[in-house]
Request: fold
Amino acid sequence: MMLNAPIPLLMITPLAAAVICMLLSERSRLLVSFAAVLIQLLASLSLLLLLLQQGPITHPLGSWEAPLGIALRADGLAVLFVLMTSVVAGIAALYAALYLTPGPLRAHFWPLFWFMWAALNGIWLAADIFNLYVGLELLSLAAVGLVAFSGSKEALVAAIRYLLAALLGSLAYLLGVALLYGAHGTLSLSDLSQQMQPGVASSIALAAMAMGLLLKSALFPLHTWLPPAHGGAMTPVSALLSALVIKASLYILLRLWIELRIHELAPDASQLLGWMGALAIAWGGWMALRQTLLKRVVAYSTVAQIGYIMLMFPLLRADNAEASTLALQGGVLMVLSHALAKAGMFLAAGNLILCTGRPELSALAGTSQYRPLSIFGFGLAGVSLMGLPPSGGFSAKWLLLQSALASAQWWWIPVMLLGGLLSAAYVFRVFHYSFKEAENSDTFHRPGVGLEICALALSAASILLGFIATWPLHLLTLPDILPLAVLPEGSLEQSLELLQTPTYETLHGTSEQQP
Amino acid sequence: MNHSLLLIPLTPLLLILIWCLPRWRETACRLTPLAVLPALAIALSGAELHLELPWLLLGSDWLLNDIRRVFLCFTALLWGGCAIYAQGYMAGDVREKSFHLLWLLTLSGNLGLIISADVVSFYLFFALMTFAGYGLVIHTRSEEALRAGRVYLIMAVLGEALILAGLLLSAAQLLVPGSLLLEDFARANATSTYQPLIISCLFAGFGVKAGLPLLHMWLPLAHPVAPIPASAVLSGAMIKAGLLGWIFLLPAGMVSLPHWGISICVIGLLAAFAAALIGVQQHKSKTVLAYSSISQMGLLTTALGAAFIQPEIWTGLVPVLALFAMHHALTKGTLFLAVGITQYDSRLPLLVLATAICVPALSLVGLLSSGSHAKLSLKAMLYDDLLPGWLLPAITLSAVATSLLMLRYLWLLSQNLSAKSTHDLSPLPQSMLLSWLLTLLASLTAVYWMPQAIAPVYPSADPTAWLSMLWPVMAGLLLAEIARRHWRTLPIPPGDLIQPIEALLRQVPIFFSKFQRATAGLHEPVKEQRAGFADQLIIYLENQLENRSLIATYFSLLTLLLSLLLLGTYFV
Amino acid sequence: MMNLLPLIVLMTSFLAAMVIFMLPEQEHRLRSLVNLGAAVLKIALILLLIQYVVAGFRPELRLEVLPGLSMILRADALAMLFAGLSSMLWLFTTLYAIGYLEGSPNRSRFFGFFSLCVASTMGISLAGNLFTFFIFYELLTLSTYPLIVHRGTPESLRAGRIYLAYTLSGGAVLLIGIVAIYALAGDIEFGDLQRVAEMAPDLHPLLHLVFALLILGLGVKAALVPLHGWLPIAMVAPAPVSALLHAVAVVKAGAFGIVRVVYDVYGIDYSWQQGLLTPLAIVASITILYGSLRALQQTDIKRRLAYSTVSQVSYIILGITLFGPLGTIGGLVHLLHQGLMKVTLFFCAGNYAETLGIHKINELDGVGTRMPLTSAAFTVGAFGMIGLPPVAGFISKWYLGTGALLAGMDWVVAVLVASSLLNAAYFLPLLYRIWFKPVPDSWPHEMITRYRDTAPLLLFPALATALLSIAAGLFAGLQISPVGWAELITLREYLP
Amino acid sequence: MSSSAVIFSLAGIGLCAIGLFGFMLHTHLIRKLLAFNIMGSGVFLLLVGMAQRSGHTDPVPQALVLTGIVVAVSATALALYLIRRWLQLSGSTELPEDDRR
Reply:
């Protein structure tokens, strides 16, 4: 049953877990959660297998057909994000279980966590724009709850700010949905991509949807709610928010942009997104450099990294299939590696704060001496964020750079590289503090081994992604969501072949070494 | 048998190994005189030896032929004699042990370069000799010694650099690609397009050792301050390394280069005369000897120049040069050692002492044994129609200069002797006396038992020829007598030109400090820039963005902008 | 198995690093054991690899990390030159570091990153394309940073910051260059010269630009003037780190990268025809002279050595710009020779500092009497730098000079000669002070009094590398000498 | 498009605009929340209005609005809870203007 129907399982398990967690006692709550995490992992894996065997799957929930029913769709991109969620949220759940002391806080955490996961899966698998709205809204509410549940004053302010921004974004998105439905009479993404009519209503609709989504993704200059929310939340929450939640709205934006073929028809709009991204890179990097609180540094780093992801949009060009493919690959890889690295970094930062007992950067002096493992976890994640090899971040940057060159948009190259340097500056600023001579001996607390391992696992995964990037990128071709029709002859086929078959050089090289 | 060549430079090095063991150090010091024995034995054995060592450096090639044997022979003799001398002279010196170490190193270099037939070994031993010799020069660590050492080192490094440049330039156009043999280099230099540059570099580079004018300043500074045995080998043996370099590497005898020849002759004669003129103004016997060395090397330089004008004479000239080198080395060595003898109570009758001191001086002016042989042979070789007519008279005339220098030397020594009464002086160590007499003997007789290579050139004992050697000495005596009565010595300091040059160089640090000031800022840390304008602006804007719910406004504006963009490009 | 060897070589130090990170701080003996064991094992493996390479094999391992983009580890002759150097010096430097850090804190971290640094160097040498090269190039930056800031003092933190600013910027520029050449020519492997050579003529200006970018990026680590500013400042690091930085790892990585770009990406013929080499030669010459001039002005021993490195590393670059086998041999062999000699000098400088607290040049007076063996080793290194035989430096200089003339760039000889003079000018005074100045009444800060010279673990590596630098010069004629190996590489380069 | 649809749509857009302005201008959190609800009503009106184009009633927008209302209610509830907590903790109904260096 489980292997046959992973899609409903992916939706139902988290919702069920959320409800059950609200009802049960402390101990059983953890058990249920672990069981649910396990089911989620297995379900996403079986979905992957199914996808590899059968290709993209469409699944009407409860056998109700669209438009009134909810249709779910699992193509390569969706499955990739499902898997990413399972890995990151699974590890974050483990971390949370170890991190949160038993008590009311933990009681609040698990239901919200499961609602969030349900919303995420809903968004990844949604096939129509209204379900995306529902998912978004559920996600926002769960996320706001997660930010607020620690109960401190700062967290509360951050949560209210976050909520207000999220509501504004949701409404803008909903407005767009209304206008699009009014103009086209359909909500399904695939129908819309075929029936898209030009007009004022469609333009406003798309603009409102895009901006609403960007507001939820905290793209500069709509980012100000993010640092307090992500920096002020409890560590596992920060990790989840930065790694997964903001990716949901970006995912929707990407879907809209590609499936409604805006990247082909309105390159100027793409340029706007790109420039906002460029500014975000600079702004976020600079602000990260100026923070005195460790988690704020990491939070502003998210602002900058979103900018990187946005650079994918102007690089998706109708007139250059090669550049578009590279851009899509680079952008998606950037999302993946950022998810892993940022989650790892937040967890490592949380560990460091546990060590020192203080949230300031200046408290880190001596940590590299006495708690090298925590710093190491932070550093590994930092490597990926800086875009230094070998890491997923580097591979993504490589692809984006290649794409920028291929589409002759050279101006993104300095943006990416300077952004990389800025991120190096703020990551190494943390090291700088940690390497400072400590006056006293080992006075640090010792975070549990489990916590360290969680952080390290995520950070290491972001590095590992640099070596196995072909594998997630292969999923992007199931099906290839950039329509083949607009490609010049052969170029994509070639790159597809590159994905799967050994190149001539590979064969040549191996044969050559036998003298 | 060929491998016995290895012994020549390695014996001193082996002694150094022994020296390095603290318990054996004393023994090693006592054994220094033995370091030359293998070299001497091999040199006198008369066999032609050739050893190829492809694994050594870039592929080494060591050779002992007739000419080299002469050089090896007198070098070993002189070093051996001086080493015995040093046993007595250095006894009780605080730095006696380090003296022996440096002695052995220098010796190894000096012996090694004589048997090197490839450029790399040659350069290696040459450098070894030069740099270890520095330690000998500054042995006393006195102010003068350090200054002399400084000048010596700077000039030596310059010389090394010039030699390296010359060698590299020659290597570019070898006729046998990849060869490292000295003779191939010399052959290449005969035709190379870089020829002027190569000849300049090599001539000047080795000229530093040989004391060419303007490159000579270290000589009168270094020779007097070094301990006497070291001065003797510096002036006698090591100075000849420069000559060897010329013989091995310059294309003399292969091509006719009259312009070069004339220039070299002029330079040589300039050295011969000017050194004498400056030398007679000096007040230290060792300084006078040093200038005499410059003067004598000037004669050899002139002969070299002649071979550039008339290549035909080269084959005959080389043995003569070797003979002359041998003569000068041993004689000058003896003269230097004599200076030390006069500082002790030798308990010899004054007449014996004076004779023993005067004999080598007479030899140097050309009146006796090796001196007359060498000078006569040289002149005989330069009887050539193609050579400029003024060459021979000039060389003959140079004997006047030499005599003046020798007279000055003897006079200074006699002043020395008479100034101190015998009982002020400590007794002369036996080893010093022995070695002095041995060297003297060698200098007088070597010409008769030296390797046969140079034998055929001996001119017959022609009285007229001898007369031609006598009159310049007489003229010198006359001049000296006149000068003694009417001439006050000019206040020319040892090293003559070095003083103005040093004054000039002292300006250089000023340039340097200016340069330093100009570049110091370039890579020194930039001051921390905090709270720059841009930074403040960004922080201000960030606060503005966050406060007062402006986010909704930006949001609306951006939505509007995006709609317009979409409208503009998408749907219109 | 043979094809796995490069990976195993890489992993010996990488795994050693991981194990060391995991070991508790107080497990000094076990850590040293792991470290030395890995170092010895690596040398053995490298020797094995060299056997294969000599026999004409080319062990290779590849992994596709991005579509059309592979990570390639490959042991070719040039790789083995650099790998051999780093594995050998790793052993000595580790020994030295064990002695040097005796009793100081944070050794676990230090040795961990130390091994990681060597692993990156291995990766750089074994990289089979620019992409792989870049991966390890940046990894090297990351793994050296903790070593530079190891002491945690404000100066070392500042040095670390400056180091990062330089090297990461350089890395960024290099990345542009690499991305650009990949965009132009695809996944271009080292030695695959057809792709660039056969490119359409209208792309040549672009290729030149890319060449400039690559050199600019690599030039930061190779400390080409004016990109050298980090090097003297990074001198605050502990002596073994300086030794590693200067002799093996960082500057060599830059130089080695330039070697790869010129020989194995663009190809020497193409670079020569297009006139790319002369500007590079000019930059290298300026660096040689400028570095020497600046070295003259320093009063701190390590800073003087640092500027000397600036100058000496450019010999390598100068060598590869000289078209013809001799220049190539000179450049390549200097990669090894400079490593040996400079590591000796830094060991000795460290010994002076650790034993007697000597940091300034004017404190060196008479130290030859107190520490004769260290000083002898220092002398050997200095003579090598000046280029006096039989120390290895002469051999490099000889090949460079003859190579320059062969390539028709006779002005290079003047540069070499001037540089020799300057080298003499800034090394000979040191030697004079060491050997000929009277022994002072007291040393600045005498720390090791138990031994006649200094602690054996500090002394042995310095002596060993000094002997090796002499041996490299003295036995240059042997097939197994650095020159012999460089000749082998050159043969393969010029007669493919 | 029928005239009632136009009226619905225009009213919806008007409400949206009013709500947006309210959202921008007010600092009192409850007012902000109310402004958001007004905006929400505007969007729902728009949805319903647009759905009337084909003469008969389209069930989809109805379902959407229904869902939308549920979502809006829960969001409002959460917001109210948070605002009340904030009032309890700080005694203020406005967000603090936190300044950074």
Notes: Chain B is about 75% helix and 0% strand.
